[in-house]
Amino acid sequence: MEAHKYAQLFPMASEGELAEMAADIKQRGLLHPIITVNGQILDGRNRFRACELAGVTPDFREYEGVDPLADVISWNLHRRQLSTSQRAALGAELKPMFEAEAKGRMSEGGKGVANLPQAGKSRDQAAHAVNVSGRIVQDAEAILKDDPEEFEKIKSGKSTVNAAKRKIERKRKRQQTQEEEEPKEGVATRGKSKAIQHAAEAINILRKIKETDPARREAFRMVKKWVTDNE
What we know:
Blueprint: H1 15-28, E1 34-37, E2 40-43, H2 45-54, E3 60-62, H3 68-79, H4 84-107, H5 118-130, H6 134-146, H7 148-156, H8 161-206, H9 214-229
Parallel strand pairs: 1-3
Antiparallel strand pairs: 1-2
Helix pairs in contact: 1-2, 4-5, 4-6, 4-7, 5-6, 6-7, 6-8, 8-9
């Protein structure tokens, strides 16, 4: 059975966890029904999969609430031990959903909140839903945009928002330093090439001086030494 888009915000249990859940369901039965919305699983993807593994027919119940997004967040947050950073990552993924819902209400003739930008409102709604500050949700959103791989580490609990921010900032500084050094190297190379060109022109001029002129040999020696020292 297909999972509702809200249910997909939360990762599936591991194979080991599903096996344990299946064994429990096989022994005691399904204690909590699977909640559906129009034939899609809103809550209970893991229970549904465990029932399949256990060979138990699942019990379904149609959702009767009025705010499926808020409810599915509440149900999952109470079951899962998520860190502040993991909640912030979830908030960053929730924000577009709140924005979409707000646009839907506006298209139906609803009114927005006066003097409050929609982006900021959606961010704060997402932050409130996962019980963190709007600022850390904003930071998590920036990490999602700048480094999706680092964002996934936050979601899995392998990193934190602050650690990811520091890592991305260090990477940005290294790139900036490299970009600043590259033009300098280019200027230096162009400068050296120009100087060698002038030296070659000087040699051509010196060749016009009579070979018997003592200054000619000394001038050649000085130019040759300069070229050698600046290679």
